[in-house]
Amino acid sequence: MLVIIGLGVFGGLKLDKYLNIKIPVFTIIFSLLSVSLAIYISIKDFLKKK
Predict the structure, then answer these.
(1) Model's pTM, two decimal places?
(2) Domain segments of the chain: what residues?
(3) What are 1-50's pLDDT values in tens digits?
(4) Which of 5, 18, 27, 33 has its CA 20 to 30 A from that of 44?
């Protein structure tokens, strides 16, 4: 879970720095998407073990 979120934030930071954007738009978007993905995978894994 932490790896997914970490990669999302890292990718967003690098993309924002590469495109030289003042407001960290991609960091925000990638963070939210990676948290959503991590929660989805966790719930899917939890329900699968029943």
Answers:
(1) 0.85
(2) 2-48
(3) 899 999 999 999 999 999 999 999 999 999 999 999 999 999 999 898 66
(4) 27
What distance in Å separates the CA atoms of residue 31 and residue 48, rounded to the nearest whole number?
Answer: 26
Q: Which of 4, 41, 40, 38 is nearest to 12 (CA)?
A: 4
Task: Report the SS3 class of residue 1.
Answer: coil
Name the burial class of residue 22, with classes exposed (0-12), middle (13-18) and buried (19+) by CB atoms within 10 angstroms of its CB: exposed
Whether the CB-CB separation of 12 and 29 falls below 8 Å is answered with: yes
Q: How far is CA 32 from CA 17, 35, 38, 48, in A?
A: 18, 5, 10, 24
